[in-house]
């Protein structure tokens, strides 16, 4: 009996750490929406200055949030190559295995834009931050594509999760071709970011409270840069986008140790 209780205690401690982390995240989003960003709008009317300060605040808070999750015992993480993120006109393309991927990636880049779920604009905890930061809604419209292209041409770093939703565990990623089209028309450089979580947790259709038996470890690894000009010069627009998208799917499938269905 005593052994069973001792074996259960670490799991319960991690569950409480996870619960406190998400409660803190929700509270922080509400405070930013109701207090911090309205105050920021009063302090400066310059939209570019306000956007830069908003992104810096989000970056620092996300950085502290993942550190809190590590210190509290909810998870561990390691990052390889973060110094190569945040370059002008850089499009960072990442896979999406867990709920915290956006938080981890934005925490690595001080001033980045990001294509995020349109549902965040309807959430009272996140509406203020994503709007004030100038993030782009993934509503799949032509306006969204043009806005993302303009962001890259403006010299911003753009973070994109081409799957559009969290990956089904054990299944090779399936990327929307729109990300490749954006990269070909706007990016100076494409940088893959491979994210892995072991053991799997916070996955698709998995509530936050269903934590794995062992502590999750997040590993972020920056891959080899891809020059979009190689594909722009190789074929006309739609065909080049298809070629780049196929390459990215094969690249991520190989890095993740999965079979790419597009090769069958």
Percent range for β-strand residues:
5-15%
Major β-sheet strand ordering: 1-7-6-2-5-3-4
Main sheet: strands, sense, barrel:
7 strands, mixed
Into which percent range does the helicity of residues fall? 40-55%
Mean model confidence by pLDDT: 90
- Low-confidence sequence ranges: 1-6
Whole-number total of structural domains: 1
What is the CA–CA distance across the termini?
Answer: 52 Å
The structure class reads alpha/beta
Q: Helical region count? A: 8
Shape: globular
**Computed CA radius of gyration, to the nearest angstrom:** 19 Å
Work out the number of β strands.
7
Please trace the helix and strand order, writing H or E for each element.
Answer: HHEEHEHEHEHEEHH
Secondary-structure arrangement, i.e. CATH architecture: 3-Layer(aba) Sandwich
CATH class: Alpha Beta
CATH topology: Glycerol-3-phosphate (1)-acyltransferase
GO molecular function: 1-acylglycerol-3-phosphate O-acyltransferase activity
Protein name: 1-acyl-sn-glycerol-3-phosphate acyltransferase
Pathway: Lipid metabolism
Organism: Pigmentiphaga aceris
């Amino acid at each position: 009996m005593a052994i069973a209780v001792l074996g259960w205690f670490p799991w319960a401690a991690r569950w409480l750490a996870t619960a406190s982390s998400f409660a803190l995240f929700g509270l922080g989003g509400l405070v930013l929406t109701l207090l911090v960003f309205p105050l920021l709008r009063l302090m400066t009317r310059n939209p570019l200055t306000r956007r830069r300060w908003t992104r810096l605040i989000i970056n620092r808070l996300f950085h502290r949030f993942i550190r809190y999750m590590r210190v509290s015992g909810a998870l561990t993480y390691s990052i390889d190559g973060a110094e190569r993120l945040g370059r002008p006109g850089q499009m960072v393309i990442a896979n999406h295995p867990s709920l915290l991927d956006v938080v981890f990636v934005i925490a690595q880049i001080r001033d980045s834009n990001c294509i995020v779920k349109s549902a965040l604009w309807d959430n009272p905890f996140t509406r203020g931050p994503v709007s004030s930061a100038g993030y782009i809604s993934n509503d799949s419209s032509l306006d969204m594509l043009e806005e993302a292209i303009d962001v890259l041409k403006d010299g911003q770093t753009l973070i994109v999760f081409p799957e559009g939703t969290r990956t089904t565990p054990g299944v090779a990623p399936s990327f929307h071709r729109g990300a490749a089209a954006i990269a070909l028309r706007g990016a100076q450089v494409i940088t893959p970011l491979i994210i892995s979580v072991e053991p799997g947790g916070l996955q698709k259709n998995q509530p936050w409270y269903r934590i794995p038996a062992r502590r999750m470890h997040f590993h972020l690894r920056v891959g080899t840069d891809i020059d979009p000009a190689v594909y722009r010069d190789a074929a006309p627009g739609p065909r080049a986008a298809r070629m780049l998208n196929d390459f990215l799917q094969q690249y991520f499938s190989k890095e993740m140790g999965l079979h790419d269905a597009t090769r069958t």
